[in-house]
Design goal:
By secondary structure, this protein is α+β, with helices and mostly antiparallel strands. It has helices at about 15-25, 70-80, 95, 110, 175, 210, and strands spanning about 30-35, 40-45, 50-55, 55-65, 80-85, 115, 125, 130-145, 150-160, 180, 185-190. The strands form 3 sheets. Strands 2-1-5-8-9-4-3 form a 7-stranded antiparallel β-sheet, with helices on one face. Strand 10 (about 180) and strand 11 (about 185-190) form a beta hairpin.
């Protein structure tokens, strides 16, 4: 199948959305936890979280156009904090339910059956999540090209299992059971293929999994 940009407008709307959301490949999967000014907790599924830098520790995420109310965007801008909660298999399919359009008077924690874990800030963790990050809002960029919103946050706290962090700082997401997503509704587990040493011209590439004694994928 070969398609060009002129073919996209001819596609049925839902087909086009599904096709273009999945063709970009596997993406990160997380539940974003926020709280509104009335103290009601909110959850939303996100697949657009990207690393922006390590010093300071910044992550970005894209929020769809605010032509309708976006509770996550509103809560982040009003409260200044949010959480990023990795999703594992025992959190499914409840995590997918969080993508439904609940009202701002409903708590997705209650609707999806997740436990509210206090972060000490106006943004709840998910008790069932194994890797979770507390984020402080730093910047909001409105993208004129399609009216989406880029939210940039700084990591101010990380919770992760001790046995999932190696001596060199590598976080083993497979060991933590973190899932990934393709498109908007297809969830996948991960199996390590390999990890390599830092690439330099003239230096051979070696498998760190073999060096560290881990079984080959």
């Amino acid at each position: 199948m070969i398609l060009s940009a002129t073919d996209f407008p001819l596609m049925e709307e839902r087909y086009r959305s599904t096709y273009l959301n999945s063709i970009s490949g596997f993406k990160s999967l997380a539940l974003i936890g926020t709280q509104n000014t009335s103290g009601i907790h909110n959850l939303a599924v996100f697949n657009s979280i990207v690393h922006l830098g390590a010093s300071p520790a910044l992550l970005g995420m894209i929020i769809r156009p605010d032509s309708v109310r976006r509770h996550t965007l509103e809560n982040i801008l009003q409260q200044g904090y949010y959480t990023i909660n990795h999703v594992h298999s025992l959190m499914m399919p409840q995590a997918h339910l969080a993508s439904a359009a609940f009202s701002d008077t409903d708590s997705e924690f209650d609707a999806c059956g997740f436990t509210v874990e206090d972060s000490g800030f106006p943004a709840p963790f998910i008790g069932e999540s194994r890797i979770k990050l507390l984020m402080k809002y730093r910047q909001h960029v409105h993208l004129d090209i399609n009216h989406t919103n880029l939210i940039i946050g700084e990591i101010i706290q990380i919770h992760s299992p001790d046995n999932c962090v190696s001596a060199d700082g590598f976080v083993d997401l497979h060991k933590a059971g973190t899932l990934t997503v393709a498109g908007l509704d297809a969830y996948y587990s991960t199996i390590p293929y390999d990890r390599y040493n830092y690439a330099r011209p003239g230096k051979s590439i070696e498998s760190l999994l073999t060096i560290n004694g881990a079984p080959d994928a």
